[in-house]
Write a structure and sequence with these properties.
This protein has eleven helices and 14 strands. With about 325 residues, it is an alpha/beta fold. The protein folds into two domains: about 220 residues, Rossmann fold (3-Layer(aba) Sandwich), CATH 3.40.50.300; about 70 residues, 2-Layer Sandwich (Alpha-Beta Plaits). About 35% of the residues are buried.
Length: about 325
């Protein structure tokens, strides 16, 4: 078995004079659930197309489970499953007919395809609707069926693009539970591309951040959080406290990088490493400022994402 599910080495792709992807190098061990995030135009789709061998790299190479995505395209095709934001199902067919068709397309016998389809329909919670035409399915049901279709040939790598976009809360939860199940119980590696940072933070063990074709961060969520130089504290004041007094005290505390009012009575302060929230509260108390609630916010993936993107932009303009 290959040591890595994905390995890219100096991977780049140009479209004419446009650098869509530049010198991207990272490795993903098998059994991981990795999030791929970035602004529109960051290169996420280009990276996915290179990993699948649909595009040829302008420089470097991409290995999928040890196989060169360009030179060994059939191997990659049999090892990877893909569920894009456009489901690509035949809506005039039933769910079962869809899976049987794609199973046989992948080279399975009718018997093997039928057994695999039955197993997957139960896994994605669609067994009782297997004889319904896909046209009658909700968007969430279609998304889960598309994931089932991508698993018909037992791939060891699943690439999923925007699986939860536009779904209602119940469908979101069902789809997220399905994705978790795949990595926990089938030893599959999942590469999840999404604009929903909260979903990526909840689901993924590692996150890769792309910006303008470059890989600007790649690590575990916890390590990315700890890499930032600031943490946040949110303070809700008692009734009758003046903003001007709070502004003066916070501005006088060394190590409070900035603060902003997030509500009429609530202020959020960014604290540099080494500054304790207790010191901030002590200084407020000494200034005769009363507060009724304090929350330490830590760093979210959104904070890390914005910081990484801004850092890349500053480096490019420096």
């Amino acid at each position: 078995m290959a040591e890595y599910a994905i390995e890219t080495i100096g991977l780049g792709r140009q479209f004419g004079r446009i650098e869509a992807l530049t010198d991207v190098s990272f490795t993903v061990p098998t059994g991981e659930l990795v999030g791929l995030i970035g602004p529109n135009g960051a290169g996420k789709t280009t990276l996915i197309m290179l990993l699948l061998g649909i595009l040829r790299p302008s420089s470097g190479k991409a290995l999928v489970l040890g196989a060169d995505a360009t030179e060994e395209f059939p191997k990659v095709g049999s090892a990877a499953g893909v569920a894009l934001d456009v489901h690509g199902l035949y809506e005039g067919l039933t769910a079962l007919q869809n899976l049987l068709f794609f199973g046989e397309l992948f080279g399975s016998s009718r018997e093997v395809a039928s057994q695999r389809a039955s197993e997957l329909l139960r896994t994605v919670g669609l067994w009782n609707r297997r004889h319904d035409r896909v046209a009658a399915y909700s968007k969430g049901m279609k998304q889960r069926l598309a994931i089932a279709r991508s698993l018909m040939h037992n791939p060891r790598l699943l690439i999923v693009d925007e699986p939860i976009s536009g779904l209602d809360p119940e469908s979101r939860r069902a789809t997220k539970d399905l994705i978790k199940h795949l990595t926990q119980n089938q030893s599959a590696m999942v590469l999840l591309s999404s604009h929903s940072l909260a979903d990526v933070e909840e689901l993924c063990s590692k996150v890769a951040i792309l910006s303008k074709g470059r890989l600007v961060a790649y690590d575990t969520v916890s390590s990315l959080r700890q890499s930032r130089d600031v943490t946040f504290i949110r303070i809700t004041l008692a009734r009758g406290q003046g903003r001007a007094s709070v502004d003066r005290v916070l501005a006088s505390i060394k190590g409070v990088a900035e603060h902003s009012w997030v509500a009429e009575d609530t202020v959020q302060a960014a604290m540099a490493q080494g500054v304790e929230s207790g010191e901030v509260l002590r200084r407020l108390a000494l200034g005769s400022i009363e507060f009724r609630e304090v929350r330490e916010m830590g760093n979210t993936l959104e904070d890390v994402f914005v910081s990484a993107i801004e850092g890349e932009e500053e480096a490019n303009h420096g």
